């Protein structure tokens, strides 16, 4: 279910636009930008879906005490080891669609290294390969404390982003495993093509 009751939507939208502007600046000017140097002069900002608070949802976490190892294939044909640390269950209200409202699940992962890193949530949806990058998109969630089963966590698809391999083949990125393929369109977050004029 959408988690808009507890937020100031105007402030949320302003913060989102500000994050997007910062990212555009990084992509345009930073030495570590994934945009190839010869294309940076033409770079005119990433392409995004309009901010939509309906895609900021509250998910219920099921934490896995003994996380299974998941091998994710990468764009370069390698495998990366992750641990499935939690399953996030959420609802999407789909008033503008003939699809039924539904409950969905996404697995959240961490790499096997012991550092306190964000939860990694790679996913595909019905926009993948059409309006969004064909290798799927990513979200990173940073809970304020260690999650326990039954905790609620905000999942904001407006923050979904394309991996660096969407911009340059020099990067090797994990591909979302099949358990994180959503059977609905999520028109929120980054779109496929960054606009260059």
UniProtKB/TrEMBL annotation:
Origin: domain of life: Archaea
Chain intervals with Acidic residues compositional bias: 39-50
Xref: Pfam families: DUF1684
Region forming the signal peptide: none
Stretches for region Disordered: 20-51
PANTHER family: DUF1684 DOMAIN-CONTAINING PROTEIN (PTHR41913:SF1)
Protein name: DUF1684 domain-containing protein
Organism of derivation: Natrinema soli
